[in-house]
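Blinded run. Sample ID left blank on purpose so nobody reads anything into the name before looking at the predicted structure. Input follows.
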Amino acid sequence: MADDSHEGNATEVQVDDETRRKAEEQVAGIDKKYEPGARPTVTLPGTNGMVSGTAFADMVDENGEMKGDSSADA
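Blinded prediction complete.
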């Protein structure tokens, strides 16, 4: 049988207003980045536009390779 003796003893973390405000700003920035149309997309060659073949244009080069991917050079 499980030990339930600690059930309900969770401590609540207190967050000050400044920390909460900064976190809300960060979340808003992340949300804005992923709004529809916020970043251009490209269809990768050979995928016919399938969801798995769609990427943010700033993440791939003109050949469909991930930007900064050093394994492509090997």
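Unblinding after everyone has recorded impressions. Strands lie at 41-43, 54-56.
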